[in-house]
Write a structure and sequence with these properties.
The chain is an all-alpha fold. Helix content is about 50%, strand content about 0%. Helix 11 runs antiparallel to helix 12 and helix 15 crosses helix 17. GO terms for molecular function: 14-3-3 protein binding; GTPase activator activity.
């Protein structure tokens, strides 16, 4: 008995710190009395017809029924059918509405026309909805007992409106995080149109030329690269592969052998006192890399990432390994893996590939990541001055293009560094699904300074994309939670394309006019 009292004390006592209080949210809303039956023991007494206004949040919480307040005894009452005798006396009223006949049609001439959804709804659905409400309100002596006839009409309209909203919302399938990355549109369906086939043929023609025209290849890559030719296109645009076709095989063999020469020369030193801390940090960060994607939780893949990051760190002592660099390997690894995988990359077993193929993917990922980091290495040197400068530039840019958002941040004391540091450090990889990151990097590779310069305008466009949601927040915590957890899980090629178009517009307006940053 003492144990039960102690449990209830910590559950219900609002005056004790740590007490479990009702928490409301999208996944745990308060119980709706129109949908859920009232609990007999929690219903108000007859002499409490006019409840006092809650003078504090704790009093409001105690006076409100919630799913968290249900204990074991109440579960039985919740599941048990309601008998007429269990209805509280406060629900009795002088307004008593007779029940509708079984198939009585609804008189649509007396109700306002609320839109096409009402006109399309069959009469039987209206009758069924009314009967469900009759059941929830309870029947006594064949009569429906409610507080008033106006409340009954209000309840009917509310539930009907909710059903109409649910029917009108588009149902979007869950898009895989990795699979069929380049073919994803916003609906998640891979579509090969005539235009897509024409673009693919153009890419194949450019790549088959004895000397690939990089400017022409960049121009076509800006709006996205077809999946079939993305691996070789990324190698060319990153500067890893020569434009001359005859030299490509020779260069690839030489660079791949050079990488595995680094492995033989340096990788054994990961346990030495000099590099022990570096390797330890890499070893900790690798499992955190895209934890929701099974591909990156495979031991073989994690070993590949450890070797790539460790060799890069000891060959670049000015910066060494910095948290966030581990994310930058994943797009290259997935793209080069997709060259050998037809099915979903997300769940593919890398260990099933031939050893030579695994080694080639690893070496190509290392060299392309190295080329990328060569252009933004000041992001990862001591004190990370590159990121500091980019965040400051973002703040100045936003103050010019959307003064409302800028002043809103100042009002609630939100610093750009608190959310934009990660945007610059991880190149928006933590904000977007991996399929969107790969599409974004198509354009970054096509831009002359995509990762270092154009990324600034993408971040500005990305921030403005959430203007409505930002201005709806009413406190510092809400703003920061939104900016660090932006809902982009359903984004696809369409959304990324619009984001890049807006970023290009901002770049066109501000890149060559630095005085526009200032007032």
């Amino acid at each position: 008995m003492a144990t039960d009292n102690r449990i209830h004390f910590w559950r219900k006592n609002a005056k004790v710190p740590g007490s479990i209080q009702p928490v409301y949210g999208a996944q745990h809303p308060p119980l709706d009395p129109r949908i859920h039956r009232a609990f007999p023991k929690d219903t108000p007494k007859a002499n409490n017809l006019k409840s006092k206004k809650a003078s504090s949040f704790h009093e409001f919480a105690r006076s409100t029924n919630d799913a968290w307040d249900i204990d074991d005894e109440e579960d039985e009452d919740f599941l048990a059918p309601i008998h007429p005798s269990s209805l509280p006396p406060t629900l009795h009223s002088t307004h008593q509405v007779p029940p509708l006949p079984p198939q009585q049609p609804i008189n649509t001439t007396t109700e306002p026309d609320t839109g096409p959804a009402d006109r399309l709804a069959p009469p039987t659905a209206e009758v069924r909805l009314q009967h469900e409400e009759d059941r929830d309100c309870g029947q006594i002596n064949g009569r429906v007992v409610v507080k008033s006839s106006s409340e009954a009409l209000l309840n009917t309209n509310t539930v009907r409106s909710t059903l109409q909203k649910q029917k009108s919302l588009p149902v979007r399938p869950i898009i895989p995080l990795v699979a069929r990355i380049s073919d994803q549109n916003s609906s998640g369906a891979p579509i090969m149109t005539v235009r897509d086939k024409s673009r693919l043929d153009k890419f194949k023609y450019l790549l088959s030329c004895p000397n690939t025209d990089l400017e022409e290849l960049r121009k076509h890559s800006w709006s996205g690269i077809p999946r079939e030719v993305r691996p070789i296109t990324w190698r060319l645009l990153s500067g890893y592969l020569p434009v001359n076709m005859e030299r490509r095989d020779l260069v690839l063999k030489r660079k791949r052998d050079e990488y595995f020469g680094f492995i033989e020369q340096y990788y054994h030193s990961r346990t030495d006192e000099t590099y022990k801390d570096t390797y330890r940090q890499i070893h900790i960060d690798i499992p955190r890399t895209n934890p929701l994607i099974p591909l990156f939780q495979q031991p073989a893949v994690q070993e590949v990432f450890e070797r790539i990051l460790f060799i890069w760190a000891i060959r670049h002592p000015a910066s060494g390994y910095v948290q966030g660099i581990n994310d930058l390997v994943t797009p290259f690894f997935v793209v080069f893996l997709s060259e050998f995988v037809e099915e979903d990359v997300e769940n593919f077993d890398v260990a099933s590939l031939p050893l030579d193929t695994q080694r080639n993917i690893e070496a190509d990922s290392f060299w392309c990541m190295t080329k990328l980091l060569d252009g933004i290495q000041d992001n990862y040197t001591f004190a990370q001055p590159g990121i500091q400068n980019k965040v400051k530039a973002l703040e100045e840019l936003v103050s010019r293009i959307d003064e409302d958002i800028h002043n809103y941040f100042k009002r609630y004391e939100v610093e750009y560094l608190q959310f934009a540091f990660r945007w610059m450090n991880n190149l928006l990889m933590r904000e977007l699904p991996l399929r969107c990151t790969i599409r974004l990097w198509d354009t970054y590779q096509a831009e002359q300074e995509g990762f270092s310069h154009f990324h600034l305008y993408v971040c500005a466009a990305f921030l403005i994309e959430w203007r409505k949601e930002i201005l709806s927040m009413v406190d510092f915590q809400g703003l920061l939670m939104l900016l660090q957890n932006l809902p982009t899980i359903h984004w696809g090629n369409e959304e990324v394309g619009l984001l890049l178009a807006e970023a290009y517009r901002l770049k066109y307006m501000f890149a060559d006019a630095p005085n526009h940053y200032k007032r």
